[in-house]
Amino acid sequence: MVIAIDGPAGAGKSTVARAVAAELGFTYLDSGAMYRCVALAAREAGVDAEDAAALGPLAAGLEIGFDGRRVLLGGRDVSDEIRTPAVSADASRVSVHPAVRAAMVERQRELIAAGRYVAEGRDIGTVVSPDSPLKVFLTASDEERARRRAAETGEDVETVLAAQKARDARDTEREHGALRAAADAVELDTTSLSLEEVVAQVVALARSRGLTKRPTGDSGDPERTSPQFVSEGSPESPPSPCPSEGSPASPSSEAQ
Ligand code: DC
């Protein structure tokens, strides 16, 4: 079972999804990290991000895993490498190819079939899990998303805005798994909301739909006290607390 949190880069998906997972006692899944792994593997293999014929088999053959907060590619910790600007740009390019998406979607479905997840990405509610009992589509203004990201990375807002526009265009215009809200998604504009307000709204929605694991008020997780949004993909972002392959999930989450 999965709570789907989709939206564009910088809308606060990672921070919100992580906090909601901690609050509910679910496991957090960062689907973007998987596309980033494909991009990194392609770079290392000398495969161009436009080379669909080569990227499909490459993606299908990757061993992508999660160990607590670490992202593992073939057993190697790539948590930092997948967050560089070059890999971010390539992740957006490799993710347009249907064969790459098919390989990642299959893997994501395997993971979420094995427990209770809060998964964030672009197509969780539309493609990966159209039957999700709660779909949230997070947005924020372009300027606010760029501002949040620039505040973390130290880049100037204009530079971030330009790169963000290019990624947004690729994410929304691609033919498969395009970024869009599912018809039954709850849309939340986070532009003028605090992280706590957004998390509280999503948790309330989950509880109102019976998607709970822990009794109300028993969060017990220190991560949700983080006071600020952290843009996904930031070098400063803490790595995602994703589940290990075949091992217990991170301390804040309990896969079932
Ligand atoms: O969420 P993120 O910025 O880490 O994602 C990196 C790239 O992966 C992003 O440009 C779009 C792509 N992506 C995707 O196509 N589908 C997803 N479910 C998640 C990410």
Mean pLDDT: 85
Bound molecules: 2'-deoxycytidine-5'-monophosphate
What would you call the quaternary organization? single chain
State the name of the first-level CATH class of the largest domain. Answer: Alpha Beta
Largest sheet: spatial strand order: 2-6-1-7-8
Number of helices: 9
CATH superfamily membership of the largest domain: P-loop containing nucleotide triphosphate hydrolases
* CATH fold-level assignment of the largest domain: Rossmann fold
* Main sheet overview: 5 strands, parallel
> What is the architecture of the largest domain at the second tier of CATH?
3-Layer(aba) Sandwich
Question: Rg to the nearest angstrom?
Answer: 17 Å
